[in-house]
């Protein structure tokens, strides 16, 4: 019979060859538990495989979150529903299950600046990433700029295909910076490609009636874009004063 130390080293070598780092890392601890609790061989093997699967799932989620390029990490646990006006926590909780992504539906957060739209959009993106879905975050102005540059360099097709593969696209701050007609047309094409085939979250400070002002005053194009976006969209309206202004005011009173 081989020495236990030799056997353990062989297991680690096999784990490394099979690209199972979690098995190699947790071997000693699991062996101690197995000996103490008198596990069967099957129990021991099951525990080791479960550790590796859990580690791989966690790694995949980290990659999804990294690839989404969120400007910062925001979760629903961090969102203060007590000071949010016009929001139903149950509705946001339902959206966080990401069934809308499965259905290829959209979500539009509309409301004044600083009322939690971006936080909620990122938080839903994080939940989708935790389900190992492909997510991408763009500020609207940055996305349009990339599309225009890609068209200029004859790279538009590749960029559009890359974005189309994203299961949940988050477009933040639509309407903060108006687009020229070309930018509006490129964004319209993107929505058209994804219509009923992929999901999109949009945050905006503009009421739908004000959207033409963000698209160079082109009412026909804006109406067509809204038709595609809103057909299967959940519209969530945020209200009230900016969270940051409220906190600043509260801090001043406390001082």
Name the features.
255 residues; alpha/beta; 5-stranded parallel beta sheet; 5 strands
Major beta sheet, strand line-up? 2-3-4-1-5
Q: Note the beta-strand portion.
A: 5-15%
Instruction: Name the helicity range.
Output: 55-70%
Instruction: Characterize the main sheet.
Output: 5 strands, parallel
Q: What integer is the average pLDDT?
A: 90
- Outline the low-pLDDT stretches: none
Provide the succession of SSEs.
Answer: HHHHHEHEHHEHEHEH
What class, by secondary structure content? Answer: alpha/beta
Measured between the Cα atoms of the first and last residue, the distance is 73 Å
Would you count the extended β strands for me? 5
Number of H- or I-type helical stretches: 11
Radius of gyration: 24 Å
Shape, please?
elongated
Describe the structure.
The chain is of the alpha/beta class. Helices cover 56% and strands 11% of the residues. It has a five-stranded parallel sheet. Helix 9 links the parallel strand 3 and strand 4.
Protein topology:
Blueprint: H1 4-17, H2 21-37, H3 41-68, H4 89-95, H5 99-102, E1 106-110, H6 117-130, E2 135-139, H7 140-152, H8 156-164, E3 168-174, H9 181-194, E4 199-204, H10 219-230, E5 233-237, H11 243-254
Parallel strand pairs: 1-4, 1-5, 2-3, 3-4
Helix pairs in contact: 1-2, 2-3, 3-6, 7-8, 7-9, 9-10
Short description:
The protein has 255 residues and is an alpha/beta fold. The chain is built from eleven helices and five strands.
